[in-house]
Amino acid sequence: MTVTLGNMRLSFTLVLALLLPLISAQVPHWGPCPEPSVQASFSIKKFMGRWFEIAKLPAQFEKGRCIETNFTMKLDQTIRVVSSEILKGEVRTIEGTGVTEDLKNPAKLGISYSYVLPYSPYWILSTDYDNFALIYSCTDVLRLFHVDFAWILSRTRTLPAATIEKSRATFSNNNIDVSRMIASRQQGCDKTL
What we know:
Elements: H1 5-25, E1 29-30, H2 44-47, E2 49-56, E3 65-73, E4 79-87, E5 90-100, E6 108-112, E7 120-127, E8 132-141, E9 145-154, H3 161-173, E10 182-183, H4 189-192
Antiparallel strand pairs: 1-9, 2-3, 2-9, 2-10, 3-4, 4-5, 5-6, 6-7, 7-8, 8-9
């Protein structure tokens, strides 16, 4: 098979065209994804249940408020993932599937919200299971640059400021840029949901 420079340019252009919507919503970073440490001795069973989004790196697919995700273990050992948000006064829900991609490293999950899309990384960097969880996801683009997501989750709609600051420091200590992290809106949710 012969690959010409013209074909390589066309392939690169196609990849960029397909990824442009994703990139425009995020801030791309040069180089490959960082390899952060994940939760040691992670227990998927303890992680199951309802989590509220406290802070995040901006994400094109999350535009509403009162964002939460419920994780439920299924009989086949996959995870039912139901995320919801309030957008324009309506509750919007999406369901996906989570899997443990490496049984030796159960804190590295993969989640997909579509049968046609591959699983996206969903790594639990740290959690105490009862109060907070720090989640990271990153996608390399030809190892030239990467697009990443980070979330601070809680079992309640609020977290103490000290916990949020400690969480941000954990991301930073793992070479994850959270300078653009924003607080999620979790006010007035129970009146609507």
